[in-house]
């Protein structure tokens, strides 16, 4: 957690302020270092921390709230005995989602909607178990026979409701360019995590339009992004030449990547057998659209957009191989955040640029 501020501190002060009196310059630099330190140690750096999260329990167990012990995932028996459904808070194609209560904790019980979709449901559960980390919603238990999954409840809901959340009086103070850029950094961190996951390179296929993408991610109360729905995460294996297709139906529209669209023209009817497979660069194509939504229209977000212009143009390269990796996008986003915080900390710098 403390590594990031140190490496940031070694960077030279902004070049744009040579005319300032040395004492003033020193004061400004000290001030911005302090601000940056506070910023990064105040939870913002946490999304960029390397290594396992100390608040995580060993695989197969979980902790709710600080200072508590790790409990094993709830079994079928414990779920049916100890979990009480309160009300429905969401429904997708695969799952009905209920706010529920377990030992005075608010939790979420997800149930399969239709037995035809059990393969998706079980794939999602398998992924949720294997990928537990700070990027993924916390698993509290499951019952394969009953097709139920128990996870942590996040009252702010999915990223789809970000506009509404940020317009609530309680969260108005979070509606700033740096909070919003931090969300975009979280989002790209998750894509980076999925592309380099312990299971290999996973593609987020539940992503054929912006609303769909946003509904797969939750906003935690401390304003971080978590991936929640892992039902459609096929594996790319480059060395084995294994590519993926996101479903068997034809995809259309500008939101999906060009290689996901039918390449043989209107005259040839769509045939999945003739549809070429593709790789994880489809996720990179979609980053600028998701980031644009996350950045919103607040004071400073256009300056952020300006700084992200080149990397976003690269994400939209027609040839997937020319698009950057999620890691490269993430590095650029972090550089922009650091740069803009530094500018914001030295009054007047922005006018000189
Ligand atoms: N832990 C949670 N806390 C709060 N809200 C949640 C939680 N889990 C799910 N939801 C809400 O329920 C919605 C549907 O959940 P989920 O994406 O898991 O269902 P799904 O059937 O797999 O969806 P899809 O149709 O995308 O496959 C989410 O978009 C979110 O709004
Ligand atoms: C990718 O394929 C190679 C060769 O078949 C195999 O050895 C490797 O385990 C695969 N990797 C993953 C992550 O599945
Ligand atoms: C969210 O708000 C932005 C403006 O801040 C607007 O452009 C966008 O369309 C809104 N999106 C949704 C899904 O309501």
Please explain how this structure is put together:
The chain has 353 residues and is of the alpha+beta class. It folds into two domains: 61-152, Phosphorylase Kinase, domain 1; 159-352, Transferase(Phosphotransferase), domain 1, CATH 1.10.510. Helix content is 38%, strand content 14%. The protein has helices spanning 3-9, 22-44, 76-82, 118-130, 162-167, 177-195, 210-215, 281-295, 301-315, 326-345, 349-352; strands at 61-62, 71-72, 83-91, 95-102, 105-112, 139-143, 148-152, 201-202, 217-219, 225-227, 235-236. Strands 3-4-5-7-6 form a five-stranded antiparallel sheet. α1 (3-9) runs antiparallel to α2 (22-44), α6 packs antiparallel against α8 (281-295) and α6 (177-195) packs antiparallel against α10. Mean pLDDT is 87; it is low at 1-18 and 37-51. One 2-acetamido-2-deoxy-beta-D-glucopyranose binds at residues 163, 296-297.
The amount of beta strand, in percent, is 5-15%
Task: Tell me the overall shape.
Answer: globular
- pLDDT average, as an integer? 87
Q: Can you tell me the residue ranges where pLDDT is under 50 for at least 5 consecutive residues?
A: 1-18, 37-51
Order of helices and strands: HHEEHEEEHEEHHEHEEEHHHH
Radius of gyration of CA atoms, rounded to a whole number = 22 Å
Small molecules in complex:
adenosine-5'-triphosphate, 2-acetamido-2-deoxy-beta-D-glucopyranose
The largest sheet is:
5 strands, antiparallel
């Amino acid at each position: 957690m403390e590594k990031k501020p140190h490496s940031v501190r070694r960077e030279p002060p902004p070049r744009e302020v040579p005319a300032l009196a040395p004492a003033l310059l020193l004061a400004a630099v000290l001030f911005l270092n302090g601000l940056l330190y506070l910023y990064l140690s105040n939870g913002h750096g946490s999304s960029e921390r390397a290594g396992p999260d100390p608040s995580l329990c060993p695989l197969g167990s979980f902790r709710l709230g600080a200072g508590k012990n790790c409990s094993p995932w709830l079994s079928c028996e414990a779920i049916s005995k100890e979990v009480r459904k309160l009300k429905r808070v969401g429904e997708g194609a695969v799952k009905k989602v209920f706010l529920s209560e377990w030992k005075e904790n608010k939790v979420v019980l997800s149930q399969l909607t239709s037995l035809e979709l059990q393969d998706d449901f079980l794939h999602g559960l398998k992924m949720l178990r294997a990928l537990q980390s700070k990027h993924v919603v916390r698993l509290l238990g499951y019952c394969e026979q009953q097709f139920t999954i128990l996870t942590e409840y996040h009252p702010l809901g999915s990223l789809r409701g970000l506009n509404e959340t940020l317009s609530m009086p309680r969260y108005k103070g979070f509606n700033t360019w740096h909070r919003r850029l931090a969300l975009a950094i979280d989002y790209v961190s998750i894509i980076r995590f999925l592309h380099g996951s312990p299971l290999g390179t996973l593609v987020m296929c539940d992503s054929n339009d912006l609303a769909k993408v946003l509904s797969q991610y939750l906003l935690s109360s401390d304003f971080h992004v978590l991936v929640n729905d892992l039902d459609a995460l096929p594996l790319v294996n480059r060395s084995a030449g294994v590519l993926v297709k996101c479903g068997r139906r034809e995809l259309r529209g500008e939101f999906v990547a060009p290689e996901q669209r039918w390449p043989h023209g209107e005259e040839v009817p769509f045939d999945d057998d003739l549809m070429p497979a593709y790789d994880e660069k489809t996720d990179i194509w979609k980053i600028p659209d998701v980031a644009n939504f996350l950045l919103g229209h607040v004071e400073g977000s256009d300056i952020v957009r300006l700084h992200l212009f080149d990397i976003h143009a690269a994400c939209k390269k027609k040839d997937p191989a020319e698009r950057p990796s999620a890691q490269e996008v993430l590095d650029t986003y972090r550089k922009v955040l650091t740069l803009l915080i530094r500018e914001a900390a030295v009054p007047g710098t922005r006018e000189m640029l």
